[in-house]
Amino acid sequence: MNDKALLDQKPLMDSFLSQGPRPLSSFSFVSIFAWGDFFDFEFKMINGCLCVFAYGDSGCFLYLPPLGRNFDSTTMELVFKHMSQGGTPKAVNRIENIPENLLSAFSEGSYNQYSKPAEYVYRKEDLIALKGNAYKSQRHDCNGFVNRHFEHDFEPYTDIDLDACMDLFDAWAAGRAKANTDDIYLSMLQENRLVHARLLKWWQSLGLIARVLKVDGKIIGYTFGFNVNDNTFCVYAEITDLTVTGAAAYMFKSFCADEELNKISRINTMDDFAMPHVARSKKAYHPSELISSYTVSLKIGK
């Protein structure tokens, strides 16, 4: 499915997402579109539910639990039958991004249940105020950035910023690669370049809120995200020049304080990819909540 055909599915998916709670950042069309360079997506109605299947080299999986009110055991049977194409289910045939409140629908007698890294959620007011000793380090970084870079601007992203943002990503990724040689992390850097490029290209069609941070007219940071639900905003990406001390802290604080987020009370920064250095960074901002999610697969032979 090409990008425009995939975008044509957005109204349908949004209509189903609006029928129930959206606790995780994955419950968004953006999270589907982001991986369009890696998977071929199929939107299929099964038993009155919208099912979003992802096809890759290793096979098929369901990106989200079925969306709709007829989410029952019959629906599950049909979903796994579709994924296995009528044959024996494979290990790759699974359902991803299941929130904890839906986990009981997948009995441990019939399904394997796997816990995924939790998503970090914060009170927006805490991230803006940065009050008290708990935020001393972040407050120091923000103040230091402002004091060192009087001529700075935090402003809306535009299409003409794309090349500069991707050049910045390349420099950032090169710096991160020097500090972390883990093969999985290096692969994630390559994948995220494609993800960021496609989301920044289609940002308007996707309804993203995107911003750039400039010093003396040069882009030294970019960030973007989307509304998960009525009171939660997901900061999907945040890239800064690693040589500019305090830029990341200042941009994050500025994004949280952006006027387009004035009706939002919670900030979701997604998970930590089970990577200790990412977890330390996210924990340093003192999340108010960690939202669990799970993957399930059939127990073969059940």
General description of the model:
This protein is of the alpha+beta class and 302 residues long. 35% of the residues lie in helices and 28% in strands. The chain is built from eleven helices and eleven strands. It has helices at residues 3-7, 10-17, 29-33, 73-83, 124-129, 136-148, 162-179, 183-201, 203-206, 247-256, 276-283; strands at 40-46, 49-56, 59-62, 94-99, 111-123, 152-156, 209-215, 218-229, 232-240, 266-268, 289-298. The strands form two sheets. The protein has an eight-stranded mixed sheet with strand order 4-11-5-10-9-8-7-6. The chain has a three-stranded antiparallel sheet with strand order 1-2-3. β2 and β3 (59-62) form a beta hairpin. α6 (136-148) crosses α10 and α7 (162-179) packs antiparallel against α8. The protein is globular, with a radius of gyration of 20 Å. The chain starts with a helix and ends with a strand. The model has no long low-confidence stretch (mean pLDDT 94).
